[in-house]
Amino acid sequence: MVGMNPPSVLDFRSSTSFALALVIYSDDMEAISHRLQEKIASAPGFFNGSPIQLDLSELNAKGEAIDVVALIALLRGLNLFPIGIRGADAAQEKHALELAVPIDSGSSHGDIVFPKVETEKKVITGTQAIASETNHTPAMMITQPVRSGQRIYATSDLVILAQVSAGAEIMAEGNIHVYNTLRGRALAGVQGNTEARLFCLDLQAELVSVAGIYKTSEDLKETFSKKPIQVYLQEQALIIEELS
User: Of the CATH numbers 3.30.930.10, 2.30.42.10, 3.40.50.720, 2.160.20.70, which one belongs to the domain with range 140-242?
Assistant: First the structure.
């Protein structure tokens, strides 16, 4: 009929999305590939199919070049999907655009920064080479609420001062401390650290895990709600107990 609006076919709406920020520190493609595969193997459900925000600012600040085409191909081959690139030079931006990876202005797209890729350091004592880790990664501190759909990954301990919403996922290679209500999913010791622990003031989680041993909300007692608790492993069994 005349004067009637056509039926709606599509619409653009504002959206907040979160992507892993992959910060590249080395131009060693072999080391990058090895480190990526290690990380994916440690938490395949977390990384598989994840959108990636590629950050070359640290690398370019050192004047080191990297083959962006090969890097993007590597990520896609590992089922990681670059959705933007930042900190790139003109040539790198050109190659990225040719591969349908848009240029990012530098605004934040998430709370996760992938750890440094470094060549293994060696300390020589006599004739024996001993691997040495000279730096200890400080704990990651989160002061804002972790919203549904948001994912946090810490390469050390993770400390969260606000609530973790249902549908959120937090992971740490070390301990997890949540000084508020914990909903969503929380995984400590994701690299197999059986000494890792999880602490929170109010356990209402969908899933908790230490070193791959987990319990879901169906296994968690309601008596742990609104009480400070700790979660740890004891003889391969996941123990949840109230803190006295």
Answer: 2.160.20.70
